[in-house]
Amino acid sequence: MNMMLLVFIFVLAAFLGTELINKIPSQLHTPLMSATNAVSGIAVVGALVACAMLATGTLGMILAFIAIILATINVVGGFLVTERMLGMFRQKGEKDK
Predict the structure, then answer these.
(1) pLDDT for res 97
(2) What's the pLDDT band for 79 if we cut at 50, 70, 90?
(3) Contact predicate 60/54, CB 8 Å
(4) Is 57 left (phi over 0), alpha (psi -120 to 50) or beta?
(5) Residue 64 burial class via C-beta count within 10 angstroms: exposed 0-12, middle 13-18, buried 19 and up
(6) Which sign does the torsion angle of CA 60, 62, 64, 66 carry?
(7) How far, CA to CA in Å, does 74 sit from each of 2, 35, 53, 56, 69?
(8) Is residue 94 predicted with pLDDT exceeding 70?
(9) Taking each helix axis from N to C terminus, what angle separates 57-87 and 37-49, rounded to the nearest 10 degrees?
């Protein structure tokens, strides 16, 4: 693919993602974050594939590695927020499992 097309897709995705998140009411952020952990998992797999097969040269490997790190942080953060949200609904006497 042409590099200019890839940059255009990246900028468009960043802009649309920012606009979409800003329009969602704050009460829905946590449930949506927990629901998108699967999508973030797919991003981790895609970053691994990019790192292993598609990245050529040092810059490609560095960008793929950064993608893996950021996607992993996103997945872990989503699970932590979900756990915290579910903890709000537990009874005081319930033990954590």
Answers:
(1) 54
(2) confident
(3) yes
(4) left
(5) buried
(6) negative
(7) 28, 12, 23, 25, 9
(8) no
(9) 160
